[in-house]
Predict the 3D structure of the following.
Amino acid sequence: MNVNQHTPMASPYGQPQPGYSQPGYVPLDGGYPGPYAPYNGPASPYQPGAPPQGPARGPPTTGPLPVSAPHQYNQYSHSQGDMQNGPPPMTPPVSQPYNPGAMNMSGPHPTYPQHYGPPPTMQQVSNQMSGMQITSGPPTPAGPGYAPPHSSQPPVSTAYSAPPPPSYTQAPPPVSSAPTQPPPPSGPAASQQYYGSPPPPSQQPFNSSLPPTSQQQFTSSSVPPPPSQQTLPPSSYSGPAPPPGQAPIQVIEDDKAKSTEPFTTGVRGQAPPLVTTNFQVKDQGNASPRFVRCTAYNMPCTADMAKQSQVPLAAVVKPLAMLPPDETPPYLVDHGEGGPIRCNRCKAYMCPYMQFIEGGRRFQCGFCSCVTEVPPHYFQHLDHTGKRVDCYDRPELSLGSYEFLATVDYCKNNKLPQPPAFIFLIDVSYNAVKSGMVNIVCQELKTLLDYLPRENPEMDSAVRVGFVTYNKVLHFYNVKSSLAQPQMLVVSDVSDMFVPLLDGFLVNVNESRLVIESLLDQIPEMFADTRETETVFGPVIQAGLEALKAADCAGKLFVFHTSLPIAEAPGKLKNREDKKLIGTDKEKSLFQPQVGFYNTLAKECVAQGCCVDLFLFPNQYVDVATLGVVPVSTGGSVYKYTYFQAQLDQERFLNDLRRDVQKLVGFDAVMRVRTSTGIRATDFFGSFFMSNTTDVELAGLDCDKAITVEFKHDDKLSEETGALMQCAVLYTSCSGQRRLRIHNMAVNCCSQLADLYRNCETDTIINFFSKYAFRGVLNNPTKAVRDTLVNQCAQILACYRKNCASPSSAGQLILPECMKLLPVYLNCVLKSDVLLPGADVSLDDRAYLRQLISCMDVTETHVFFYPRLLPLMKLESGSLPVAVRDSEERLSKGGVYLLETGLHLFLWVGASVQQELLLNIFGTPSFGQIDSSMTSLPVLDNPFSQRLREIIDSFRAQRSRYMKLMVVKQEDRAELIFRHFLVEDKSASGGASYVDFLCHMHKEIRQLLS
Ligand SMILES: [Zn+2]
């Protein structure tokens, strides 16, 4: 029996039907499900699967705290009793009525721009870059230029009562100037005002569902791919300039024009619309492209074919991705005490690819073909087509993505987890205080702590919080609710870090509100006159880790740090920035950590479920390559605010911080990707840790993180069954619930190369190549990495030319339709700052970008490598102007343009721009009077100004990091920075223009063919 013959992937409706009051699951709104049918049946051979953590999960290493070291601290009674004071037991949340929007509370909703206007006229490329010679790099941003004083006395190491009087004039900015966008006043619903829109009012898709009929399988908007014998529509190219069809904008606009219907995931092997297209997704049995995107939706059947084509076989998985308000978040399914039902052999979770047989008493696994007994409580009769009659009532039988409630078997030490904790660790050295960072963080936290993630908006967040400040020594704070004032405990021996208090360190915000507020008011005053410039870093993470260990919970550390940690301590670093190494064989060492200490520490953090987010405020080299090791290995994030100046940068920092604290996040996660026989997951790219070859361990996993998975053949695949993958992520939710999120994906398999080349996704291929290359620089010279990329792409295109394209003259470059943009995008990867840096790009910036890109999804890598450039001469409400190509020659002197990369946002103003436009945007008629230091546009009362600010807001809302606006006047010095992002042009660092690169690729391909 063919196990995949009757999979419900092609059911005509994507959502479960009404009548969803079926016991066993509830929509994922955070509440526990209603009482499920308990397992009362007779004993059966069925055994629940083993926990998927794998053998690597050891017991937590919570040992007794060190007691012997002669630490200096006060008010610390170190008793055994204190040490056993754990957090209060968690109260399970009560069952809640279904609220489709509830899951979206803790994160932003991306804004989905409105329909676009008519497609653009064809844009001819004339390839001349005359007048575009860029001879010097962009200027280094001007720092405050002060010389810090010499390090002197350690700060107060006793309990304090009143802040010492400030003794220097460079005080932190006054409180009133701190947040320009204060959080909303009250109520959890208000958190949406940060960056989102309200949840959808109702679940429309449910009501419009039709019963399944087999005829409807292929009547969706997608047309099955034509047979391979059919003439292909290649893009051919013979001249020096790329034809218009190869212009990225045209491809993007064409895709938008043809994607008018919702994308249904029921047709196996159907490539989704591009990431640049707005579309609605209906889950019909495969994961939404918002969760999983593949490089190829028609995989070659054999390893030989795959090798011949050189097309990478990979998927980019974003397990906790936020969905737009009109799509339903994954349902939570409870299979009862026995836990989720799984294949006995390969342990795959119940999914639409399981085929029920023998009247429903057993099921055959779509991954390994093993037959497993159905436990009595899960038994259901089959209809005449062999489908369970409850198929469409159960998410795990009809949908591509859903969650299972995990049982205690899936928990560390067979114990249900505690809710996670957030610990804020703030650098209070001279630089940190002087830049205003300390003051801003403390002011912001007073409000932000009310917006800690929660699954049920009606309830307080279960997340507890703790506070540490540090320079060369660490200061812990007791903020127990019974105290009148917070107490400081100083640990100055940082060589063997421990936490000097347990009771009162991690607290509930509401209970300890007054003490916390008092602490946050006092911290900036306490350190206002510090002269300490040296910092430690390793002990800071150790302190947070030890605190989580002591509380026996997972959690997140928010570290706010300014400088290279040169103070004597574990993890001490030296300045090793050496630009002479760039371009040499030793360049790779600059991307590697300079000491092994942080790798070891990262491993310990992962074992505890301790995720680290690092906010950097450097004025010089801080060695991001080394400091980023722990964040990158624990699923955390690194944010960098070079030359941080409160006035100019706090908006960006605060928006990033707010989003980071509030966003949907899971802890202590393990991801496993299972595949059907014939292929297997062989490599993984992202922010995580692996102690074996199969389990991706993530101390934390948030809604913005993506993991790229590469697949290799280990046998033949069959065209009939296709290839299946199931990505299962076990994690602890922010309320302390243990869950499994499951994403299923089936793709077609082909024995003809032409079918492969008809169904690839170039944006996903580029995501894979960039991560592959950016990891490659750790061990190879950058030139070797670039050469490898060019060679592999040339092979991909040469294989197509040789095997799939119709005969034509050798002078023609023929590209597969879906890879038309491979050369232009690949060129952008090749000339990125990581692989080909300009003289002005710092080593820290390169290390930072390398880490950042490693966990980007396809949408983010796309806009990062090929920025969006919008002409703003005419704005209409409800639609965006059609973008133009990233080239100098697309810019008109009389125009104004907006460019965004996901990290940067520029407003470029032409030198002879019309007065009316200037008046509308800036309120001034004169080009000379535009203040290019502004970071936000003036609020003017005209439709143009209003619409432009709306567009900027919507761009910001779509990205995971806040983009600071930079106004660039034509021919100003800052224009050099802007030009760096005109990626079709030759770059200052020697990167080829698109046209030159296309010629180069053509030559490489011809060489391979001859
Ligand atoms: Zn199996």
DSSP finds 23 helices and 30 strands in the chain. The CA atoms of residues 49 and 347 lie 6 Å apart. The first strand starts at residue 25 and ends at 26.
